[in-house]
Amino acid sequence: MNNVHCAITSCKISTYNKPPSVNFHSCPTSSDMRNKWLLMLKNKCAMLDWTKSKICSRHFEKKYFDAQRKLKENAVPTIFAPTMEKSFQNDTTAKTRIEKLLCKQSQAQLIIDVKSNLNKLKEPTNLDSFITDDLKWKPEAPTEAQLWLMVKKQDRIISLLSEELTQNKKLIETLRKTVETSKLSKQETEQNLETMKYIVKSLQEKHATLEEQIEILTAVEAR
Q1: What span, in angstroms and rounded, lies between the C-alpha atoms of 145 and 153?
Q2: Of 37, 59, 81, 208, which residue is most buried, by most CB within 10 angstroms?
Q3: CA separation for the pair 76, 74 (Å, rounded)
Q4: What pTM was estimated for this model as a whole?
Q5: Residue 43 is part of which domain span?
Q6: Radius of gyration over alpha carbons of the chain, in Å?
């Protein structure tokens, strides 16, 4: 018997170690359900083969099983254990004490902390005099000036990233509308095609009728 592994990267269930209550389930065959699975399994599977991959029952809520513990047609995997690779608070790459402490804080907490500390620091009134034309601090620049230059550079980066994010959102919206328009155009094309088929069929029937009439007239003339 082949050893089947659950396709979820963070799951270690396989044929050889699964509890009796755990079963493996095949992927859906309909495109609609596959799209729903893809939405839930994003970044959860290293590789997903619709015909071969299996998902164990631990990733499905109880409501998705019938009385015989069979998976319902509308079942979607929704239960996932956090992976070490993606856990912000369990980053094993941190080496120094400060890095480890930073890893324990969320992004929101860090932003609030930075803003709070910056509010306590005053920007030097003569900051421009310590900055060169290529945005570097001069050798005589005090620590406060160096710090504020870095802060301003970081603010500029954040601003540029925000602008890029806004542009990407607009691009996505444009693409979405284009796809919708394409779908409508496809529907119109299909409708026009059906209309043309009907017209061709009608013409063929009329042609056949005319041929019959010609044959009748020809027969009459021959008499």
Answers
A1: 12
A2: 59
A3: 6
A4: 0.37
A5: 1-83
A6: 34
Q: Given the structure tokens 């160096």, which residue do they identify?
A: 146
Q: What is the pLDDT of residues 10-64, one digit of tens each?
A: 888 998 888 888 999 999 999 999 999 999 988 888 788 899 999 999 999 999 9
Total of domains in the chain? 2
Q: List own/partner pairs for 30-38 with CB under 8 A and 24 or more apart.
A: 33/73, 33/74, 33/76, 36/76, 37/76, 37/77
Q: Is 26 helix (H, G, I), strand (E, B) or coil?
A: strand
Residue 73 and residue 2 share a domain: yes
Check if the beta carbon of residue 141 is closer than 8 Å to that of residue 147: no
Question: In sequence order, which ranges of 54-142 are alpha helices (DSSP H)?
Answer: 97-103, 107-120
Q: Which two tokens stand for residue 26?
A: 């095949």
User: Which one-letter amino acid corresponds to residue 164?
Assistant: E
Reported as a single tens digit per residue, the pLDDT across 79-115 is 987 543 343 344 444 467 777 777 777 767 777 777 7
Identify whether residues 76 and 26 lie together within a single domain: yes
